[in-house]
Amino acid sequence: MARTAAATTPPVIQRLPLTTARITLGAVVKRVHLNKEYVILEKDGIPVAGIMDADELEDYLELRDPKVRAHIRKSNDEYRAGKSRPLEELRAARPAPAPLKRKRRQKP
User: Fold this and answer.
1) pLDDT tens string 19-49
2) What 3 state SS string does 77-98 have?
3) What is this structure's pTM?
C-alpha cells in the first residue's frame, strides 16, 4: 500500500472558506485524492466540515466497527503475549512446495 510514505510525513491540513471551496471544488477534491491532503471547510472562520480521501474515510469508518476493534485488540494482545513469529521463521517452517510433474504426451 502506498500509505506508508504518507504515514511517515505529517498530513497536510488546509483550511478554506466554504465560499472558496465551492468555487474551486474540483481542484480541492483532486488535491485531497492525489496528495492525501485534508481540507477543513470554514464558515465565518468556524470549522464546519472536512474533506478527506474516500479510501481513508472507509478505513476510518471500518475502525469504528466494534467487531473490527475487538479483532485488532485481540491481535495486539496475542502479539504482546509472544504468539507471533518473525516472517523468516515462518517461511523456514513451511514445507517446500512439491515439484510439478509434467505429463508426457503419448505418441499416436
Assistant:
1) 999 999 999 999 999 999 999 999 999 999 9
2) HHHHCCCCCCHHHHHHHCCCCC
3) 0.59
CA dihedral 13, 16, 22, 24 (to 10 degrees): -70
If we measure between CA atoms, which residue out of 56, 38, 52, 51 comes closest to residue 2? 56
Report how far residue 5's alpha carbon sits from residue 7's, in angstroms, rounded to the nearest whole number: 5
Cβ count within 10 A of residue 51: 19
Residue 18 C-alpha cell reads as: 466554504
CATH of 8-51, one of 3.90.1140.10, 3.40.50.1970, 3.40.1620.10, 3.40.190.10: 3.40.1620.10
| Domain boundaries, given as residue ranges, for the chain | 8-51, 53-82
